[in-house]
Sequence to fold (202 residues):
Amino acid sequence: MKQGVQYVSGTPPQTPVLRPLRQPLYDTEKFANGDTQQVLFTDNKKFSDGTSKSLADTNMPQSGTLGFPLEFDHVGFTFEFERGTSRSDFNILYKSTVFEWIYGQVTRWLQIRMTRIPEGITAAGSVSIDGNAAPAEASIIGNGWGVVSNFYNFTTPDRKARRITSTESFKNPILFFPAIAGLTASPRKGSTFMLGILYGQL
Fold:
């Protein structure tokens, strides 16, 4: 008795059609006295202290990865501390601070002093405006010139963007040496912006 082989034919899943979106991805964390490290892009719902994030804090669709079917062409970074940060707190937060970028679990692609990561678009200055003998300070402080083209370039030597797939993990540790101490307002929020092109499904 001969046994036949059955075949099942079907239509393979279609590759999603992706549209380029000209927007960054960003995430925010709270930096407080006593911190030696905070990590961004690891939780799109809550800060490290358990409080909830809003759209003003992050636009990540999920924690640690883009999620299907999104992709991202990564070209650079900007970083900013929240508006209203005093000059003294701004100096404390930038002093001895290291910015890292990690793909996967341990692959460190970037390690650099925070002072080399500009804000990109910002007002800048620190002035006293009330004319008194001990004048009140009105601080609007920025790192780098407040122009669109001012960012940390993360492209390859041949100027190609670093493609992030939908399932590839990434994170952004911010390291403090030594631990943060002396902030007049603790915590202070800080945000990293991944610059590039986000591809989303039509």
The radius of gyration is 22 Å.
